[in-house]
Amino acid sequence: MGILLRGSHARRAATAHSDVDVDVLVGGAPYAARRAYLAEHSGRLTHVSVAARDVRSWVTRLGEPADWAFGLPVAAPARLLWADPCWRDRIDLPVLCQPADEPRLEELIATLGKVASARDADDSLGARLAAADLARLCPSVLRLANPGVRVVSRRSAFAAALDLPVAPAGYREDMLRCLGIRPGSIGELWAAAARLVAGTIPLIRPYAAEVAEAAGPDLADALLDGRLDRYLTQLARPVGAPLSASREPAGVPAPRTGQWLTVSAPDAPVTGAHLEAPEPPGGGDRPSRLDPAIAARLRRTPDGLVAAVVRQHDSGEVLMVAWMDDEALHRTLTTGRATYWSRSRREYWVKGATSGHHQYVRSVALDCDGDAVLVSVDQVGAACHTGHRSCFFTQLPVASGEVTS
Question: What class of enzyme is it (predicted)?
Fold first, then answer.
């Protein structure tokens, strides 16, 4: 019914060592009855891989996710070499597209449990196999929070999966360790797998509806009501450990009422990197990568700060006021996560990094004087450290005045 060239030759990316991959589409044959040949031409041998595929199964397979693509959608070039006229319109596709996988959150959580079981049994091989499976599942879940991307090969899928711009801190290194590319002990492997999952959960909370569609309402509810976080904490506790162990899944203690905790902010746009921001003498001119055109419009306090007024993007409700320097504004604009400068601790903090009450930035506007920014966010949970939705919950008495002409 048809013969197609696929792989690196179809992408025009072949090297002297590349295989020649050919799909022969026939009626009624098994899906992947493969035959390999070593063809000689001008004294050089070339590996020719031929897959005889049932044409109807082949067309159906295009509507399914590719098992090698880390859950990402595929757009792989192909070249039609020959087709039966009655099938030409259906198989003459210059690009073979396959959809993204659904967000496989349930499998991700279950696989972390397998890593935990192997850790408790001191089963190095089992831990490494489960951690590799976990790393292959993680991008399918993080895809909910990331810009769309299409991949053309297994190599490009691997690169795209490692470079997702919205990802947990340390994501790239943890992925490489779980996949076995970075060495590590069972303990280090467990820590990497746990960080991947615990860091992914808060990033996908705004997409609970998509999770419900793929995995059912109970898992989506657990994502929102904290059961999933508690389950991760339970997995982190080795067998025999007391139940009073920390309930914080990310290994950072939760803030108590009246207290702020800070963590390092991700260095955008490189996934998982961190920027150290040492405090120079005098408290000003911290290093920043803010666009110079934006920086030129800011009117800062002597400490190099501008006020950030934060509101809910759809209702206009004012949630809180914080401070930003140039670098905090840069991170807010480039990561989509509200990032501020703590005047008391002299360090950056990402809203929600310890509490789970994240702010996903929808827009940022500069006021006419350049000394304040209006940050419109999608607020998850409470904006105030006291647990209130807004910091402005204390009403003050106001005398009513009469209007006189």
Answer: hydrolase
